[in-house]
Design goal:
By secondary structure, this protein is an alpha/beta fold. The chain has a domain of 155 residues: ATPase, nucleotide binding domain (Nucleotidyltransferase, domain 5, 2-Layer Sandwich), CATH 3.30.420. Helix content is 49%, strand content 11%. The chain has 13 helices and seven strands. β4 and β5 form a beta hairpin. α2 runs parallel beside α3. The radius of gyration is 21 Å and the shape is globular. It binds 5'-O-[(R)-(carboxyoxy)(hydroxy)phosphoryl]adenosine (KG4) and zinc ion.
Amino acid sequence: MRVLSSIVASQLDTHGRYGGVVPELASREHLRAIVPVVRLALEEAGTGFDDLAAVAVTAGPGLVGSLLVGMTYAKALCFARRLPLIGVNHIEGHIHAVIAEAAREGRAIEFPALALVVSGGHTHLFEVSAGFAYRLLGKTRDDAAGEAFDKVAKLLGFSYPGGPVIDRLAPHGDPEAVRFTLARMKGNPLDFSFSGLKTAVLRWSERHDLAAEIARRRALLREQPRPSLEQWLAVTPQRTLDLLASFQHTVIEELLRRAAASAEEIAARSAIFSGGVASNAGLRKAASEASLPCPVFFPSPALATDNAAMIAAAAFPKLERGELADLALAAQANLTLA
Ligand code: KG4
Ligand code: ZN
C-alpha cells in the first residue's frame, strides 16, 4: 500500500481549552471539515473522484455524532459515484497502520501477532492471526491508558492531550522517585486498570500541596495555549517532574508486563503496538529493551494517532476479499473487534 495523501484536521484548538473532547463540538467540527478535507486529500494525491476504486469509512467505535458525519458522507459519495463501500473498525485501523507500514519497508509481520492498541479510548490486547482474525486477550476495566495520561495532566494543570506533554517532561524527572503499586487483576490477569493509578497521583498531589504550582500552570495555559517545553519547565518543580516520570514509568510497566505475558501465551511471532499512546518515547524505548519474546513494531508518529490512511489500510484486504458493506451500514459507538 502506498499513501498518496493523508490529511488530518486536528480539533485540538477547539477541545484543548476544555481539557477533553466535547462531543457536540466534535460533530460540528467534523461537519465543517469533511468536505474541504476530502477535497484536499484528492488534490494532494493528484487524483479525482473518478480515480477511486472504493470508499472506506470508520463504522465505530467512537463518538456517534462524529461517526455519523463520516458515514453519511461516505454513503452519499458511494451512492452518487456507484462506488463500493467498506466499513472499518477504528481499532482494526490502528493495527493495520502498522502492518501496512512494515510491509512497505519490506519487514513482514509474522503471525500469530500480538496487538496492543493503546489510545484515548482503548487499551486492548488482541491475538491477530494470518488472514486478520482477532481474538481479545485483555482490555482495560476502567480508564484507557491515554485517558489516564489526559486525566493526570488535567488534574496537575497541564494541557490537553496529556500524553505528549507528559512524554516530553518525563525525561526531566526520576521515574523511581514515587513508587506506585501496580494493578493486580482478579479474573483475567491480562486485563488492565488505570483508575487506581490516577487516584494515587491525585492523592500524592494533595499530600504535597501542589495547589500553587497548578494555579501557575493554569495561568500559563490561559496566556499561551501551547506552551513550549521551557515554559512548562519554568512552572514545574522537580518533585512534580519526578511525579510525572514515575507515573509514566508505571503506565509503561503495566502495558509491557501484560504485553509480554500475552505474547508468551499465544507464542506470538511479532508484536504490534499502536494507537496514540504508542507514540510515547518512553514506551518505545522500554519496549525495545524489554523482554518481549518477539520483535515489536511501532507506527511512525504520523500514523500513530488517528488518521485516514490507517482506515484505508484496514479496508484494502477487505476490498480484495470482496467484503463490502451496503448503504444500511450503521455507525456504532460501541463496535467491538472481537
Ligand atoms: O489514537 P488517538 O489519536 O485517538 C483515540 O482513538 O483515542 O489517541 C489519543 C490519545 C490521547 O489520550 C493522548 O493523550 C495519547 O493518545 N497520546 C500519548 C502520546 N501522544 C498521544 N500518550 C502518551 N505519550 C504520547 N506521546
Ligand atoms: Zn484512535
